[in-house]
């Protein structure tokens, strides 16, 4: 129960408040000022309500984002798990293929005697100078027109260039088969450019261009290179396809 002193203080406080209200009611300026304060308080109340609604909306949005991130993380884990399984299967298949290849080699032939090639994108075997050693098209290096085609080119120079063209082709098609998850913007742009170079005649063939040779090959684009490309075309190793201000060297 409140003491007499507390009751007295509360009573005096209310009397003072009533007195202030009477003064304000009789003073036009104070009434206007009090009205402005009341309007400000109402505006603040509306603003607070809007802030509470916005906070609730943000909380819900954050919750959805967290759920989405959790789902994305689970999808990535599942994807990596499947990739690991596929890689293990591919390794098993590759090992089995290697065993099969080794067992099917001709008698007296070791794996080191077989010319290593790029898978699915290689030029044919080296050119040679043996009279009795013909390529698959029946053309002999020794019977190439020496004056206007071979000139001062040596077999070693030609075969070194074949190795370089193999390397160029390998680099290009390694980019083309890059998995989407590992593609950077630079790789995606390169793949898009390679696709734009294709046409109806290149369908089913792998090919390289001068730009590919400049980018991936450690050789000069000069008369010597074009002479070697002419020799390879004459021997049926490559075929030229022109169009769109571009020369494509198809691997036949």
From TrEMBL:
Q: From start to end residue, where is composition biased (Low complexity)?
A: 80-107
Q: Which InterPro entries match?
A: SKA1 (IPR009829), SKA1_MBD_sf (IPR042031)
| GO CC term (a single one) | spindle microtubule
| One of the GO biological process terms | regulation of microtubule polymerization or depolymerization
Quick one: where's region Disordered? 79-111
Write one Pfam family the protein is assigned to: SKA1
Q: Which residues form a coiled coil?
A: 41-68
- Keyword hit for Coiled coil: yes
Example GO molecular function term? microtubule binding
Answer yes or no on keyword Coiled coil: yes
- Tell me which UniProt keywords the record has, alphabetically: Coiled coil
Question: Which family does this protein fall into?
Answer: Belongs to the SKA1 family.
This chain belongs to which protein, by name? SKA complex subunit 1
Origin organism is: Helobdella robusta (Californian leech)
Question: Which gene is this protein's source?
Answer: 20208132
